[in-house]
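It is time I had a proper look at our fold encoding. Can you supply me with one protein entry, sequence and fold together? It will help me judge whether the discrete encoding reads sensibly. Leave the record below and I will have a look:
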Amino acid sequence: MKNKKYQYREINTDEIIEDFMAEDYVLKKLGLKIEPQGKNGNLTVDQLEFKDLIIDWFFSGNWIKEEVKD
């Protein structure tokens, strides 16, 4: 079974960000860098949750999440 692919489309400009690029795009746009604070240089559970919340928040405005058809 294939994993579904998504993209985000900005409704005013039609800019498209593919889902695998979303994290880097959002963090760069917001000027954020998340430094791993867990063991062995990994992100903590709180950091992972924060990252997911920031991405969801960013794309909740003028963006539409669309499934990409192959």
Observations:
- The mean pLDDT is 93.
